[in-house]
Write a structure and sequence with these properties.
- 30% of the residues lie in helices and 21% in strands.
- The chain has 107 residues and is an alpha+beta fold.
Length: 107
């Protein structure tokens, strides 16, 4: 049964692409990988901590935080790219936090 032209362009994708064992280094929450399809438009894949939200008090970000400082990455091409980009982001954020703490300890 045809519901709309848009559904034929890209059907909804509710599958959970997450990798068992991937955890957020900040809070220990599950890392979610999803295929973002809205009204038949494909926005690629996203990877994020399941608990991440600006001002959540856990991840240390605000609405004005740069995208590179967030525990969420959007508009990626595949599950594999999500895993790679997540690992890079975690490495960057751990290094950033280490440098910020190091600076405060030396003051």
């Amino acid at each position: 049964m045809r519901t709309s032209f848009v559904d034929e362009v890209c059907p909804p994708d509710d599958k959970d692409y997450s990798v068992p064992g991937m955890k957020c280094p900040k809070c220990g929450g599950k890392v979610l990988i999803t295929h973002d399809v809205v009204d038949g438009l494909d926005f690629g894949f996203s990877v994020s901590c399941c608990r991440f939200c600006h001002y959540d008090g856990i991840h240390g970000t605000t609405f004005n935080a740069p995208e590179k400082d967030c525990y969420a990455i959007h508009y990626l091409n595949s599950k594999e790219e999500c895993i790679k980009k997540w690992e890079q982001r975690v490495k960057y954020l751990k290094e950033k936090e280490k440098n910020e703490l190091g600076g405060k300890l030396n003051e």
